[in-house]
Protein: RuvB-like helicase
Amino acid sequence: MAGRAILLAGAPGSGKTALALALAHELGTKIPFCPLIGAEVYSSEVKKTEVLTEAFRRAIGVRIKEVKEVYEGEVVDMAAEEAPEPMAGFGKTIAHVVVTLRTARGSKTLKMDASIYEALAKERVSTGDVVYIEANSGAVKRVGRSDTFATEFDLEAEEYVPVPKGDVHKRKDVVQDVTLHDLDAANARPVGGGDVMSLLHQLGKPRKTEITQKLRAEINKVVEGHLASGVAEVVPGVLFIDEVHLLDAECFSFLNRALESNLAPIVVLATNRGLTTIRGTEERSPHGMPVDLLDRCLIIRTRPYTVAEVAQILGLRAATEGLRLGDGALAMLAEVGARTSLRFAAQLLTPAAVLAGAKGGEPGAVTVDDIQEADSLFFDAKASARVLLAQSEKYIS
Structure:
């Protein structure tokens, strides 16, 4: 499905955005999902195509697999060795740190750079802690307290972990999920070579720098090289553009071209428009989109909810808000939702609960009278439009 588009077309309140949120939840955290509203592409500082390009690259994941050399074990001894500071007179500075790590198989004493000592101090590592040190980058992570120090108390303030098995020095397979935009932003001013470690090293140094097409082309070239060598794999994500009818002809032209790219996510579009004018032109088209882009889309029609479906959704919403709907209250609220919209009916829950509390009822208990009173106090969009038509002479136009 990567590089293809899906269009969710339906009336307002028919569940288009809810479908997109459910899709994001179902994909999980390992697959990129980038939401965007059509109006967000318009800015006085950034070009429309730049906003769309960034959104596209946020929705394309890269799963990088690498083998790291690490030192892992329980800290048996740790000592910092000082040396005179040439520029500070009688002062001294940390020259290096000597750390002894122990695993179930053996122990090893390591002489490390002073920067590792700073990382150990930042993680508040002490004797008896289990640590993880990367050989290439010097990154230090405190895993927890060794379980050999665990006591028989029922309540512990520390998280105890077992002593690692195997050797202190080992090679580990590490998988890291990033997006193309992460690599773009981290390498806006590239430093080092084009290997995987250079790309990942720059992730920790984000800079607010303009991302050029030349840089993106270089990132694509490096990623494609790693794809060919099997070091990385592309994870096509989902780009969701709500209210797509707000885009203009230039944006639609960009979408057409971007969907033909080798690196393209699944694009999900949503609109509540029928036959309308394409923004930036005088041409009328279904859903306010060019016909050639519509031809690329699988169009899914969303229909209005039935009364039973509205009642089911409102029941779940009331339970989430901790409200108890009395006899007939849910049916009354569902009728209001069918007459107006699901959104309006869901918004009536809070004022109905406030009215119920003002009458001295049980906290969170809502009755039919409360629903009717709340419905009489507020207008939905259709009722407000009818009032404007009937009393147009009283308003400034």
